[in-house]
Specification:
Elements: H1 2-19, E1 23-30, E2 57-66, E3 69-76, H2 83-97, E4 104-108, H3 129-155, E5 158-159, E6 161-168, E7 172-179, E8 182-188, E9 196-203, E10 209-216, H4 233-245, E11 250-255, E12 261-263, H5 269-287, E13 292-294, E14 298-308, H6 314-320, H7 326-340, E15 347-357, E16 361-366, E17 369-370, H8 373-381, E18 387-390, E19 399-400, H9 403-408, H10 411-420, H11 430-444
Parallel strand pairs: 3-4, 10-11, 16-18, 17-19
Antiparallel strand pairs: 1-2, 1-5, 2-3, 6-9, 6-13, 7-8, 7-12, 9-10, 14-15, 15-16
Helix pairs in contact: 2-3, 4-5, 6-7
Length: 448
């Protein structure tokens, strides 16, 4: 009798967590800045925005199997978050709710019609102290807003059913075009691409859709720099369309490995809305058919690796300081200032993060503007895993190229670092280091 009792206890401890009822919570808040405010993403803009097409949002999705088995995914309609913002959010969520760093996923839509998140891409403008003061104020507001949407998600937890599926949208195109022996930002319809639209549906006990998390690997650059109206580009329009379709639901968009992917065609607000509707229709087609249930405990792991830049070249930056290009001048000034202050310009601490629910969903979070080959390679390496692969997570410090991209050159290899105010390019082992970290992180949550 006693033996049977202990066997029962053993089964409760081992089996119950994996089959426990998942809970979910949703929070949302407008993060549109007070206008006028400078937008980011395009160096061609020289005046602040004074109007908007629609609001920008921070949205949170909490998924919890138990107080110690949980994650929160926060999506933001901004170009990218900084290491400082990430650190402050992590510290505050730990202090208030005991969240571990690995349990917090922050993603940015990378809209090029959103506010400057200083000092990311600061080289695109020559901002005075009054403008920078506004940038700093907005950063603090952004940190508070992210913490608040997580708090709202925690307060509004409910028993939930989760399910996943994958659709497809075809407007993303590789932009690394070879012209006269040089890689330019053009159109390469034969280049690598990832048209996958991963979808996570969250329903309540009554069967109502409460949240839709969906992703796509494409730059939010349909709207050109000549348009200075705040909007979320195609991702913003897609979220609006889905929330119209599923009343009471919150739609959360995460950006995939979109570093070398542009929407095509592009160049107008109308095209952004068209692409957004196409993406929303892809999500609807998944939601309206049978989807795979998501069950089990929530595991997460965050691993940091050190990415090395090529050796610092003082002569290069002294030469660029004399350039007629104002962006190169600004970057050179920053680099030489850093060099003379003996700041470390040799490396970048890069986070790789993985979250897994049972064996039914694995979410990979990569920092920076990751080129699409990372996602394609991961899916090939782990064909049995239901992978959601996101770039633009936690902080966006520049492009993350593969060894092949580095050897070919072009914007994603080096030129982007001028605008991000980084030395460079990265050394050619960047891809190998990231995949070594990915294998460690995936193994830690049970992916073999």
């Amino acid at each position: 009798m006693m033996r049977n009792f202990f066997l029962f206890l053993f089964l409760v401890v081992i089996i119950t967590p994996a089959n426990a009822q998942l809970k979910a919570g949703v929070g949302r808040k407008v993060i549109t800045p007070e206008l006028p405010f400078y937008l980011t993403g395009y160096a061609s803009r020289t005046t602040p925005s004074v109007a908007k097409i629609h609001d920008l949002w921070a949205k949170a999705l909490l998924i919890e199997a138990s107080p110690n088995s949980r994650t929160v995914i926060v999506t933001t309609d901004v170009l990218g978050l900084t290491p400082q913002i990430h650190a402050e959010v992590v510290d505050e969520l730990y202090r208030k709710f005991n969240f571990q760093k690995s349990q917090i996923i922050l993603n940015s839509s990378h809209t090029h019609a959103g506010p400057m998140v200083w000092p990311s891409l600061e080289m695109i403008g020559d901002y005075d102290s009054a403008v920078v003061k506004k940038f700093v104020k907005y950063n603090k507001f952004l940190v508070r807003s992210i913490v608040e949407v997580v708090e709202d998600a925690i307060k509004n937890k409910f028993p939930a059913q989760l399910a996943t599926g994958h659709g497809e949208a075809d407007f993303a195109m590789n932009r690394r075009q070879l012209v006269k022996g040089k890689i330019i930002n053009g159109k390469n319809p034969e280049g690598a691409k990832d048209h996958d639209v991963p979808v996570l549906k969250v329903t309540d006990a009554g069967g109502a859709v409460r949240a839709l998390l969906f992703g796509y690997a494409c730059h939010n650059t349909t709207v050109p720099g000549s348009v200075d109206l705040i909007n979320g580009d195609y991702a913003g329009f897609a979220q609006i369309e889905l929330e119209k379709k599923y009343q009471g639901a919150t739609a959360l968009f995460f950006t995939g490995c979109a570093g070398d992917q542009n929407p095509q065609p592009r160049g107008t607000l109308e095209l952004a809305e068209k692409h957004g509707n196409a993406l929303a229709n892809a999500v609807k087609s998944v939601v309206d058919r049978s989807m795979r249930p998501v069950t089990g405990t929530v595991k997460s792991h965050l691993h940091e690796t050190t990415l090395q830049f090529v050796p610092f070249d003082v002569a290069k930056y002294e030469s660029e300081l004399q350039s007629a290009n104002p962006f190169m001048q600004r970057r050179a000034r920053l680099m030489l200032q850093a060099y003379n202050n003996e700041w470390d310009l040799t490396k970048y601490k890069y986070p790789v993060q993985v979250m897994r629910i049972g064996s039914s969903l694995t979410f990979v979070s990569l920092a920076g503007e990751v080129v699409v080959d990372y996602a394609l390679k991961l899916k090939k390496m782990y064909p049995k895993e239901n992978l959601f692969v996101a770039g633009y997570c936690n902080h966006v410090m520049g492009y993350i190229p593969t060894k092949k991209v580095l050897e070919e050159g072009g914007y994603e290899a080096e030129e982007n670092l001028i605008y991000y105010g980084k030395p460079g390019p990265f050394q050619k082992d960047v891809e190998a280091k990231i995949f070594t970290s990915l294998k460690t992180a995936l193994s830690s949550v049970g992916v073999k």
